[in-house]
Design a protein that fits this description.
The chain is mainly alpha-helical. The chain has a domain of 74 residues. The protein is built from one helix and two strands; from the N terminus they run ββα. Strands 1-2 form a two-stranded antiparallel ribbon. The protein is rod-shaped and about 150 Å long. Keywords: DNA-binding, Nucleus, Transcription, Transcription regulation. One of its GO terms (cellular component) is nucleus. It is found in: Nucleus. One of its GO terms (molecular function) is transcription cis-regulatory region binding.
């Protein structure tokens, strides 16, 4: 195999490379180097994108966990408030019934007192 920069003629003799061939070889070498560097930059850029996406996934998972914990806490508090509301509603019904009963008792007592007062007042007129 021939060395770079050295060409062989059809007769098999080794001669100096022509400037055009040397220029073509240099362009090929530069293009290969440029392509290699471009591919390296592309791989690095792609790796940065993957790293960024993985960081976003981690952040979203953490946020999702925090939101799930907050939702669970809200559900727990809601259940506690509903239980307290049920107790307070039952207590309100009890107190309403007691108030009605006491109101009826007072009305009965007032009626008896009114009746007694009328009886006592009428006895003086006879």
């Amino acid at each position: 195999m021939a060395s770079p920069g050295i060409t062989t003629s059809s007769a098999g003799s080794v001669g100096a490379a022509t400037p055009a061939v040397a220029l073509t070889e240099e362009r090929k070498r530069k293009r290969k180097e440029s392509n290699r560097l471009s591919a390296q930059r592309s791989r690095a850029r792609k790796q940065r994108q993957v790293d960024d996406l993985e960081a976003q996934v981690a952040a979203m998972r953490a946020r999702n966990c925090a939101m799930a914990a907050a939702a669970n806490e809200a559900e727990r508090l809601c259940a506690a408030v509903q239980a307290e509301n049920a107790l307070l509603s039952a207590r309100a019904l009890e107190l309403s019934a007691r108030l009605e009963s006491l109101t009826d008792l007072i009305q009965c007592m007032d009626a008896v007192m009114y009746s007694n007062n009328n009886t006592n007042n009428n006895s003086y007129y006879y």
